[in-house]
Amino acid sequence: xxxxxxxxxxxxxxxxxxxxxxxxxxxxxxxxxxxxxxxxxxxxxxxxxxxxxxxxxxxxxxxxxxxxxxxxxxxxxxxxxxxxxxxxxxxxxxxxxxxxxxxxxxxxxxxxxxxxxxxxxxxxxxxxxxxxxxxxxxxxxxxxxxxxxxxxxxxxxxxxxxxxxx
Length: 166
Known about the structure:
Helix content: 40-55%
CATH class of the largest domain: Alpha Beta
Distance between the termini: 91 Å
Strand content: 25-35%
CATH architecture of the largest domain: 2-Layer Sandwich
Number of strands: 5
Mean pLDDT: 81
Largest sheet: 5 strands, antiparallel
Shape: elongated
Number of helices: 3
Low-confidence stretches: 162-166
Radius of gyration: 33 Å
Order of helices and strands: HHEEEHEE
């Protein structure tokens, strides 16, 4: 009779008790994870807001209109502000992608290194993205301190719908 009790009653109850204990541990672990996730939520929301701010800044740097003439004029004005001699600002042929178009721009001028550095600083602060691809600085042959700067850059704008791809 004792063996029947052990096999018929005790072992199934013990097995169910073990299963209930395992389920309780899993539930406790899920609750602990949920509590940890709840504490992380404000941090994730803060990161999301920071990423959204970066995206908005990026979006504002690529204008919806081409408006290249006024932008190149602002570059030439920067060159004049720092008394950079022999300024050249010349666009090349546009390249279109699906949503963004870019215009290569050749810039060249001569001036003191400090003025060229300030020119680049102000160029980076403009409200439109410009990617500097190549910079070449050359000392003048008379060693008067003048430096000739030659730069290849790219200006971006949003391509109109249906623009051809080159």
